[in-house]
Amino acid sequence: MVINYKKLNPNGFYLLKYLNDETIRFIILYGGSSSGKSYSVAQTILIQTLQDGENNLVMRKVGASILKTIYEDYKVAAAGLGISHLFKFQQNTIKCLVNGAKIDFSGLDDPEKIKGISNYKRVQLEEWSEFEHPDFKQLRKRLRGKKGQQIICTFNPISESHWIKKEFIDKDKWHDVPMTVTIAGKELPKELTKVKSVKKNAPRQILNLRTKQIEEQAPNTVIIQSTYLNNFWVVGSPDGTYGFYDEQCVADFEYDRVHDPDYYNVYALGEWGVIRTGSEFFGSFNRGKHSGEHKYIPDLPIHISVDNNVLPYISVSYWQVDFTTGIKVWQFHETCAENPNNTVKKSSKLVAKYLKDIRYSDKVYLHGDASTKVANSIDDEKRSWMDLFIDTLQKEGFEIEDKVGNKNPSVAMTGEFINAIFDCTVPGIEIYIDESCSVSIEDYMSVQKDANGAILKTKVKNKTTLQTYEEHGHLSDTFRYVVVDLCSEQYIEFSNRRKRNLYACNGTINFFNPDTECKYTKKILYVMPNVNGKFVLIQAFRCGNKWHVVDVVFMDTTSTEDIRSSILSHESDSCVIECTDAYFPFDAYFPFIRELRSSTNKEIRVMKEFPDVDKRIAATSDYVKNSILFSASKVESDTEYVAFMNNLMDYNKDSETKEASAVLSGLVQFVVKLGLN
Asked: How many angstroms separate the CA atoms of 553 and 338, rounded?
């Protein structure tokens, strides 16, 4: 069959080359979107099916998606090559009318579908990153019985912790191979075959079970990395005579290059990375700006920071600090002690081995989670996890200075502090991460922030072991511990300044002691159903000449049922509802209030929303400082109360963070107006 080279991209030329190389077992195509990976595979498998009459299997993890995706690519590819008439397109099957060979399409949502694949010459795994590692291991083993059988995989790299990188790519050695393709004895022009890179794995020494001789196995895997710049149907052919220059597509990629470099790095350039969502805990960490070459300096002491969660690994980060001019802190190494090394003794021995490998012999400063110092039943002496960790390092010959505190610092506050350093708003402090700390960098870029500003540790389940664990956040914890310890004075100053806002009296927010018996003389609920989309309720009790904010409701809802149930569930003498006519129009508002009044003995009052809330907040702030006390116990245990307090402390008249301040100022206005103060 004669193929017009003007129908193919660079990916297609390499596929034709390696699909006909019986030494190659795995062909991996990865890179950016719009680089023509899937379409090129469809083109070349159609061509190979016509030429050799062998059966092929195309798989995605979820079968329901296959007809609208890769199956359509095959139909379009056949039409583009002008060979549609040589195939019969049926549901989940394409049959070659020339030789009877077929291309089957299947999902792997049913593990039983892995069986019975030995009659296929080639298996294509579309969106390889969707497959689990056990899926791939089974496929490798079951594709057997034919000479030159191959597995072709296409995907976009995203997470650097993905099993493809950890278990397949990182466990082999790779070398670049020339970007040359010869067709019919003629080498194609280099501009037609240029991709980002072509690599092969290193030869292996294997034992021939029949001859009992050690033989060298030739490289069996080729990796082709490409970008949209290698797709002639995005940027046009080099000579401008074929393909298509998609101006809008190119402009879109260029926009991401300038405005969202992380996204561009993954989806345009096809590099391993992390896509930012905007809700990251370390939102100000910029990989390009804050990571690079920041190596170990022998003349400076080493600080290590430890988190003892065993899954997915025990986390250890290695740091140094230079106080010569300001404070420069950098991470230069990481240890992720996975199974079977995720025990206290084995992980500490890994740390000792690394320190010996770099010939470090000075004192080691140890930072970490305060909970690791709690006594347990690991041994007869009931030593803590940290005691055992230190003991092991000492037996390995290292002097240890324990810097682990008795109480962990606030998660939310430490996150704000580190972000402020990255934003250069804390004078004199710099933080950098060495580019070799890839797992740490991914963690710092991936870990999300919860509604209260703390780390959101999302749980995942291991498909093989069925164990549930928190995937991200443990290395981020080690990051927080060591930075706060090394910059303790600046952290205290920052946190005090953070609390020293509109409502702080003498530098701090005032709290009442929930353990003391209080005689309350007046109980009020103050409600604003819709402040910037939030429903906010304050339950305030008068104690002497002070008001105690004993509870709050702070939630995203517009449900009148939520409002009604919250009001009815909170004890009070009277309830004030401040709202706009738009929120409760007369025909809706009156039945709601009437029903509410009939359901409770509380006095129900309705007020129109104050027209200038910033003016009211300013006028009532002194009263808040002097006469409003908050619940210390609620701050420790109640997520809505914490969110309310964070919102309150974040207030400034130029921001949108006004919900808590608005309702608190309404309460104060009400009690002052009625002489309840």
From this structure: 42
Helices 488-499 and 411-422: crossing angle in degrees, nearest 10, is 110
179 closest CA partner among 191, 167, 161: 191
Architecture of domain 5-235: 3-Layer(aba) Sandwich (3.40)
The CATH 3.30.420.240 portion of the chain extends over 511-673
CB-based burial, 500-527: b 16+ in 10 Å, e otherwise = eebbbeeeebbbbeeeeebeeeebbbbb
Compute the distance between CA of residue 102 and CA of residue 48 in angstroms, rounded to an integer: 11
Structure tokens at 313: 């690994």
pLDDT at 653 over 80: no
Distance CA 476, CA 422 (A): 15
The domain made up of 287-495 is a member of CATH 3.30.420.280:
yes
Q: How far are the Cα atoms of 267, 533, 564, 591 from residue 561, in angstroms, in the given order? A: 44, 16, 5, 13
Given phi > 0 = left and psi -120 to 50 = alpha, else beta, which region is 402? Answer: beta
Sheet strands (E) in 102-149: 102-107, 122-126
Closest CA to 223 of 168, 183, 263, 266: 168
- Residue 83 neighbours by CB under 8 Å, 6+ apart: 46, 50
Listed in sequence order, the DSSP H helices in 466-612 are 474-486, 488-499, 560-569, 586-598
- Does the domain at 511-673 match CATH 1.20.120.160? Answer given as no
Three-state SS for 610? coil
Query: For residue range 341-362, what is the model confidence (pLDDT) as tens digits?
Result: 999 999 999 999 999 999 999 9
Tell me the mean pLDDT in the region 310-323.
Answer: 95
pLDDT tens digits, 476-491 = 999 999 999 999 988 8
H/E stretch holding 77 reads helix 70-81
- CA-only gyration radius of the chain, Å: 32
> By three-state DSSP, how is residue 151 classified?
strand
Distance CA 40, CA 107 (A): 21
Cα separation values, 207 from 140, 211, 214, 216, Å: 19, 8, 4, 9
Is 305:479 a contact under the CB 8 Å cutoff? yes
Continuous segment of H or E residues that includes residue 45? helix 37-52
Task: Give which of 402, 413, 394, 347 is closest to 369, Cα–Cα.
Answer: 402
- Angle (nearest 5°) at CA 625 between 621 and 629: 120
| Amino acid sitting at position 103 | I
Q: Which residue in 676, 644, 655 sits closest to 552, CA to CA?
A: 644
* CATH 3.30.420.280 boundaries in the chain: 287-495
Block residue for tokens 């926009």: 255
Q: 0.90 cut: is pTM over it?
A: no
